[in-house]
TrEMBL record:
<feature type="repeat" description="WD">
    <location>
        <begin position="172"/>
        <end position="213"/>
    </location>
</feature>
<feature type="repeat" description="WD">
    <location>
        <begin position="226"/>
        <end position="259"/>
    </location>
</feature>
<dbReference type="Pfam" id="PF00400">
    <property type="entry name" value="WD40"/>
</dbReference>
<dbReference type="InterPro" id="IPR001680">
    <property type="entry name" value="WD40_rpt"/>
</dbReference>
<keyword id="KW-0853">WD repeat</keyword>
<feature type="compositionally biased region" description="Acidic residues">
    <location>
        <begin position="8"/>
        <end position="21"/>
    </location>
</feature>
<dbReference type="InterPro" id="IPR036322">
    <property type="entry name" value="WD40_repeat_dom_sf"/>
</dbReference>
<dbReference type="InterPro" id="IPR015943">
    <property type="entry name" value="WD40/YVTN_repeat-like_dom_sf"/>
</dbReference>
<feature type="region of interest" description="Disordered">
    <location>
        <begin position="1"/>
        <end position="21"/>
    </location>
</feature>
<protein>
    <submittedName>
        <fullName>Uncharacterized protein</fullName>
    </submittedName>
</protein>
Length: 403
């Protein structure tokens, strides 16, 4: 199974082995967060009724039932060159290249306009532990054009320059930790990681040194020694509105907000509810028209009910639930990935029905939907201008963005 399926045990496996019933996941499917702010139309039977009871989850509205796949522009099947299954993927800054990391630790890239391989596949350095590629981000353009930072489940972080074929600098190894989430600050000065141990580390991009460790708690009654999240972290994002603020989410049913300038490394806000199992936390981009000063975060939880939400960090509530229920005759989809595009469209995908959807955040209408079936669980989604890249276990697909 792909990385991100919850497993609550002492087993230190790179790939999760959860295969039990929903009741064993360790969180409350009936959990309800306070809703206020945005108004999203949700059909009445999505909150109850015989069909919802039988499905143990929300039911899709008519817009999802009738939604068509966006125009497919490019498809790169998994294993076409002898390497593993894709786990994470990102466009470069101008959208001309798409890079993806696989479960064998190899990073590859292709030209979006032709589909041709970019000419190099980066294997893990021989002197570091081998792991699954779990997160990938590009640095801002300029001197660092086409440089991507890649993290693995073995706690290794490496920099690759895709067009020259060089691995840059020495690997960073987080001893006794698996890195499952990574993000780069908007100006590229720092990048942050999170994973198995529940903490967040901030690195200086130029030197590669860890400059800040964020792992403290703030809630009343919390033990002062509490180390960040109580379980693994899979979602991590710098806020566009404040270069030093990050939001993280993981298996412990919380979002935590961190300020890298806080000297004691304690989270500045804890919000309870989301159960994040993949790259499924994204800050509101500019130009959505939904908030005057940002502070909104898209979060997708690995569950059948209220899976996709917009959280208002300032108010401390989920300001909207976006419909993501099961379509008639189909399995439900539990999200691993979520990305918020300019124009107010949320792209969300995951496992179960193995599909992704484009949802209008303001109206809740599903504007596009594609189902992959088989072994095609969606692990990551990225957007670049008019393009949407969907990284699945069985390959990578590039679509025309929904308007």
């Amino acid at each position: 199974m792909p990385i991100g399926d919850p497993v609550y045990s002492d087993e230190e496996s790179d790939l999760s082995d959860y295969a039990g019933p929903d009741d064993d996941l360790g969180f409350d499917f009936n959990f309800r967060t306070p809703i206020g702010g945005l108004t999203v139309a949700v059909p009445p039977d999505a909150r109850g009724g015989e069909r919802a009871r039988l499905l143990r989850g929300d039911v899709a509205d008519e817009s999802a039932e009738r939604a068509k796949p966006p125009r497919l522009l490019r498809e790169i099947p998994a294993g076409h060159d002898g390497h593993g299954r894709p786990q994470c993927g990102r466009f470069n800054r101008d959208g001309t290249l798409f890079a993806y990391g696989c479960d064998d630790g190899v990073v590859q890239a292709f030209h979006v306009d032709t589909g041709h391989r970019a000419g190099v596949a980066f294997a893990p350095s021989p002197n570091v532990p081998k792991g699954v590629c779990t997160a990938l981000r590009f640095l801002p353009a300029g001197d660092n054009a086409n440089v991507c930072v890649v993290a693995t489940s073995a706690g290794v972080i490496q920099h690759h320059h895709l067009t020259s074929g060089k691995t840059l600098g020495s690997p960073i190894v987080e001893a006794n930790n698996g890195v499952f989430a990574l993000d780069v600050r908007a100006d590229g000065a720092t990048f942050a990681t999170a994973g198995r141990d529940g903490g967040v580390r901030v690195y200086d991009e130029r030197t590669g040194r860890c400059v800040t460790r964020l792992d403290g708690g703030t809630d009343a009654g919390e033990d002062a020694s509490f180390s960040g999240h109580a379980d693994r972290v899979f979602g991590l994002r710098y806020l566009a509105s404040n270069a030093d603020v990050l939001v993280s989410g993981g298996w412990d049913n919380t979002l935590r907000v961190w300020d890298a300038r806080v000297a004691d490394g304690r989270s500045v806000l804890t919000l309870r509810g989301p159960q994040v199992c993949g790259d499924a936390v994204d800050a509101e981009p500019t130009g959505t028209g939904l908030s005057a000063g940002a502070g909104l975060v898209l979060v997708a939880s690995w569950r059948d009910r209220d899976a996709v939400q917009v959280w208002d960090l300032r108010a401390g509530v989920a300001s909207a639930n976006l419909p993501f229920g099961a379509c008639a005759g189909a399995r439900g989809c539990k999200p691993y990935a979520a990305r918020w595009a300019d124009g107010g469209v949320a792209y969300v995908g995951g496992c179960g029905s193995n599909e992704f959807r484009a949802i209008d955040v303001k109206s809740g209408e599903t504007m596009g939907r594609d189902v992959f079936g088989g072994d095609g669980a969606v692990h990551a989604i990225d957007v670049s201008g008019g393009l949407v890249g969907v990284t699945c276990a069985d390959g990578v697909r590039v679509y025309e963005a929904v308007r």
